[in-house]
Amino acid sequence: MKHHFRRQGWVAGLFALLVALFILTKFIQPNYGAGDLGSLVRAVLPYAFAVAAQTVVVIAGGIDLSVAAMMALTSVTAASMMAGASEEYALLVVPFVLAMGFALGAVNGILIVVSRVPDIVVTLATLFMLQGAALLVLGAPGGGAAEWLKSLVVGTIPLPGLPDSVTAWIPKSLVLLVVLLCIVWIPLNRSKLGLSIYAIGSSELAAFRSGVPVARTKILAYAFAGLFAAMGGLSLTMSTGIGAPIPGPYLLASVAAVVLGGVALGGGKGSLLGPIIAVFVLRLVRTDLTLLAIDPNVTAIVEGSIMVAVVMFGAFITMRSRSS
Amino acid sequence: MLKKKLVGALLASAALAASLGAASAEAPYTIGVSNTVQGNGWREEMICAIKAQALASGKVDKLNIAHRNTDAAGQAEDIRNLISAKVDAIVVNPADPAGIKDALAEATKAGIVVVAVDQAVTEPSAYIISNNQEQYAYLGAKWLFEQMGGKGNVVYMRGAAGASADSDRDRGFKKALAEFPDVKVAQETFTGWQQDQGKQQILDYIATGVPFDGIWTSGIDNVIVDALVESQATLVPVVGADNAGFVGQLQSVEGLKGAAVTNPGSIGGAGVTLALQILEGQKPAEQTVLVEPELWENATDAGKEKLKTAADSSLSPEWPVSISIPNWTTYSKEQIVACKGPGE
Question: Which of A30, B45, B59, B261 is the most exposed place for a label (fewest CB within 10 A)?
Answer without folding.
Answer: A30
